[in-house]
Amino acid sequence: MKKVLFVASECAPFFKSGGLADVIGSLPQYLKRTGECEVRVILPLYKDLNESYRAQLKEEMVFQTQVGWRFQYTRILSLKLNGIMYYFVDNMHYFSRDALYGYGDDGERFVYFSNAVIEFIYRGDYKPDVLHGHDWQAGAAVAICNIKKPVQSIKTVFTIHNLKYQGLLMYDAFENLFNLDRIHFAGFEWGGMLNLMKAGIFHADKITTVSPSYSEEIRTPYYGEGLEDLLNMRSRDLVGIVNGIDVKDYNALYDKALAVNFKSSIDKKHQNKCALQEQFGLPVHSDTPLYSIITRMVEQKGLHLVMRIMEEFVQNDIQLVIMGNGDKEFEDYFKYLEDKYRDKVIFYRGFDEQLSRRIYAASDFFIMPSKFEPCGLSQLIALQYRAIPIVRETGGLRDTVQPFNEITLDGTGLSFANYNAHELLDRLNASLKIYKDDYQYKALIKNITKVNHSWDDSAEKYLKLY
Ligand code: ADP
């Protein structure tokens, strides 16, 4: 039985800002089911923990964590949920704040977190075989685990969920926050600063990314975010394992949020569409094709392409529902579009999990033209609700959506290669044709019904890696 400790900064159902929390919340369950692996998870204890979980927390240990020349109070709490043991690092100064991230001292917060994790392993009875760190917030934990003698025998895996966010610190943080010999400085240094993502990649025994395509892409300057040389140097130990989703949770047949449950029935899917049209005050027409976008509104998600061509596409007899929040530029654009095309476009600013499920179920097509996409979960969720994904062929989108072939009738979505707005428009226009062609549309939905994006295959791959 392999003992693996996940070190991560978020995890559903406790704390979530995006896809990372879904992965940390679901993968341990599937690894457990293999019968050959026991995963525990260690997280910061943020302020916003649901009261029912908080009441169940058990104190495991209290100690002082050395952070440079200072000592910081650390309390480790634990909670068992659905057979998985979760540990929480409690320090009010660093983590009892309103948001998970976005503070000037984020780098310091997660170096502290990493030091505390290593101290916890060193002092306690629980000794994992593998420390598996996720994203830059766990980069220092991987590095320290590799360097410090008492824990050095533990193997390390580092997973890149998104290379864009790297965790940068001023170079003097090496003296002030770490307790490492100066000889190790080079493993952290990047462009005159410290880079925690680099430290994880540099030190880990094995490195993974969340899709095979992304693991290739990040070795090039376009996607490498400045770390491509290091990633090429370490390519022998770099693998891509595609994310799965919890297919019992995201399931149109059982999901209580939907107006009507369904598996592949197009009639029942249309009933969900009519229910959503009614809810949003759109004209209720079951055969008007409904498009949707559900996303964090950042440049990564390809929203500049949408901005360039959507007004032209909206001239067709379609409806468009957008849900999300983020950069003002995008929010303002979707508000403008909604105001101008009141009978066609709805913009829900913010994110509502239950409503998002109703939108997926109501949508005929789901638009996700990302500039880069490490894996992407939204397109997988869309497939689960029989919303046909329209994606750019990058990263996990390329690995999980097969372009529909109008002759052979193979494929599960529509896709385009280049980051170009008119390639997106071309695929949107093609989707309208498919929608009107009963034969093609039914074949495409049938293909989607057959795909399985559960964690089972990927969990086996992680197990082999461990
Ligand atoms: P990313 O992690 O880059 O945001 P993914 O597609 O990997 O994108 O994961 C998206 C996850 O976040 C899904 O669980 C989705 O339901 C949720 N989500 C989508 N849009 C938002 C949003 N605006 N705010 C918060 N969560 C969102």
UniProtKB/TrEMBL annotation:
Residues 3-232 form the Starch synthase catalytic domain. It comes from the Bacteria. Keywords: Glycogen biosynthesis, Glycosyltransferase, Transferase. InterPro entries: Glyco_trans_1, GS/SS, Starch_synth_cat_dom. Residues 285-447 form the Glycosyl transferase family domain. Its EC number is 2.4.1.21. ADP-alpha-D-glucose binds at K16. Pathway: Glycan biosynthesis; glycogen biosynthesis. It catalyses: [(1->4)-alpha-D-glucosyl](n) + ADP-alpha-D-glucose = [(1->4)-alpha-D-glucosyl](n+1) + ADP + H(+). Signal peptide: none annotated. It holds the Pfam family Glyco_transf_5. CDD domains: GT5_Glycogen_synthase_DULL1-like. Synthesizes alpha-1,4-glucan chains using ADP-glucose. Belongs to the glycosyltransferase 1 family. Bacterial/plant glycogen synthase subfamily. This is Glycogen synthase. It comes from Macrococcus armenti. The lineage of its organism: Bacteria, Bacillati, Bacillota, Bacilli, Bacillales.
